[in-house]
Amino acid sequence: MAESPAAVPDPAFAGAPAPAPAPAPVSAGRENTPTRTVRLLLRLDRAAHRRWFLPTLGVFPLSDYVLPVLPNQMLLIGLSALHPRRWPVIALTFVTASALGAFLVATAVHAAGPWLLDTVGAVAPGRAELREVAGLVERHGGWALAALALLPWTPRAAVVMCALAGIPPWTVALAVLAGRPLPVTLLALTGAKTPTLLRRSRRIDRLLAEVDARRARAG
């Protein structure tokens, strides 16, 4: 039985390059996975008119003293932009919870002493970056904390230093309560009244655009 001749390649395609492999498809799940901040905003947005919304919202600024990785400024701005009519109560919740958190931290430091900070891995009084804050507290006491509370972020180090200096927890809480309304109100008011200005920030624009898109899909 004769063997069949080997297949001869077509000369027209002999010099043609091999086709490039098709690119691997991008995982739809990876593209559609929301960031942590977006997930938080969506969950809080869905609960915005429920009774437990404000207590749940208050957990974030309350925990900011021990969990500084929480995106509290973004949550404040985002929720005020999503619910512009409720920005005053959102801001009030953040201010109250921040003062309560300062009171609890000062009380814990008063009761346990500096060893508590080392045990939980929190702010330690010997760290070089805290010397300036410690000096301000030594010179001005609670007034230094009230001034530092005017900054956009939570004055964690100043609260700890005031507690270590022996300032009563209620004084610490009142100092935070005196300073926090201004920055919190400005952030909330900016989110509620000037969304166009906010969207000039790429990060905020990307965040709000993703939240809006997912709200539209859910609706």
Provide the succession of SSEs.
HHHHHHHHHHHHH
Cα-to-Cα separation, first versus last residue = 73 Å
Helical coverage, percent range: 55-70%
Number of helices: 13
Mean pLDDT level: 77
Topology of this protein?
Layout: H1 28-31, H2 36-46, H3 53-63, H4 72-82, H5 87-112, H6 115-120, H7 131-140, H8 142-148, H9 156-164, H10 169-179, H11 181-193, H12 195-198, H13 202-218
Please describe what this structure looks like.
With 219 residues, the chain is mostly helical. The chain has helices at residues 28-31, 36-46, 53-63, 72-82, 87-112, 115-120, 131-140, 142-148, 156-164, 169-179, 181-193, 195-198, 202-218. 32% of the residues are buried. Residues 20-33 have low confidence and may be disordered.
